[in-house]
Amino acid sequence: MPVTVIQTVLFLVVAPVAVYVVVALLAAAPRLNRRPRYRAGQPWPFEPLWWTANPAGAQLPPPAEHLVSGGKGGARGNW
Prior knowledge:
Elements: H1 5-33
C-alpha cells in the first residue's frame, strides 16, 4: 500500500508538534494553576498582621521562650 502525502505530513509534522504541545502544557501547568500574584497598587485582600520586634514596647506579654546564642555569629556562622 503506497504512502500518501497526507500520511507523510501527519507523521512528520503533526505528530511532533502534538508532542511538543503536550510537553509544553505539562511544563506550564503548575504556573497556570496558581492563584494570581499581588501587584503593587491592587487592593490588599488579607487581614492586617501586626508584628513587632519589641513586645514590651507594644504592651504585649514577653515570649514564652528566649533563645540565647553562645557563639560569635557573623559571616562565618559560628553560632
